[in-house]
Amino acid sequence: MVRGNRIRRQYQPVGGVYKRYPSSEGLFNEMNAKGAKIEENNADDLRFYVKGGNVLKIINWFFSRKNREIDVWREFHEELISNGILPQEKFRFIKPEYLHSKHERLITRRGINAKQYLIYDIYTISFTEEQKKALRDLLKESEFTETYAFVNEEDLDKELIYYDNEEYQLGFHAKYLI
């Protein structure tokens, strides 16, 4: 897990929000989609608001994979390599394999005044032997730091980890990794 940017005492799975491409502009204008304005530099995130009548159209568009980012490399790189958790020379390439998608339909979460439809794409990565060794070395170095945490299935079930008598939250979607 990597430390989240928005919730100070939370660790979450590697990954994040897909980006949309400029070619999606017509569709988003047609549906009067409004950006969620989480951060100014994330205007192209697939985090936005639409009227309820357009939700099915958006879901169908999302699964068409058109006009949007479709791989996990950018998030893997941003969250594990560019911040120095993993060595770039050993993780220049990864082999992600899509497993399935998990949907949370029209839910309400604390702090968000809207119904949400969330789609999580779950991947596994086939690491090379060199990459596996780098991951084992990282675990030996420390299983918990300010930037990452190794967790087990029990932690995922509880959505909590404890380190040095301190409690840390796991992202609510971490349970989908089991």
State the end-to-end CA separation. 13 Å
Overall mean pLDDT stands at 92
Helix segment count?
A: 5
Residues in helices, as a percent range: 10-25%
Pattern of helices and strands: EEHEEHHEEHHEE
- Low-confidence stretches at least 5 residues in length (pLDDT < 50)? none
The share of residues in extended strands comes to: 15-25%
Shape: globular
How many strand segments? 8
Largest sheet: 4 strands, mixed
Order of strands, main sheet, comes to 1-2-8-7
Number of domains: 1
What is the radius of gyration computed over CA atoms, rounded to a whole number of angstroms?
18 Å
What structural category characterises the helix and strand content? alpha+beta
Can you tell me about this structure?
By secondary structure, the chain is of the alpha+beta class. The protein has one domain (2-18, 70-177). Helix content is 25%, strand content 24%. The chain is built from 5 helices and 8 strands, in the order ββαββααββααββ. It has helices spanning 25-30, 55-64, 73-81, 129-141, 153-158, and strands at 2-3, 10-12, 34-35, 48-49, 95-107, 116-126, 160-163, 166-170. The strands form 3 sheets. The protein has a 4-stranded mixed beta sheet. A hairpin with a 6-residue loop joins β1 and β2 (10-12). The longest helix has 13 residues, at 129-141. The chain is globular. The mean pLDDT is 92.
Show the helix and strand layout.
Layout: E1 2-3, E2 10-12, H1 25-30, E3 34-35, E4 48-49, H2 55-64, H3 73-81, E5 95-107, E6 116-126, H4 129-141, H5 153-158, E7 160-163, E8 166-170
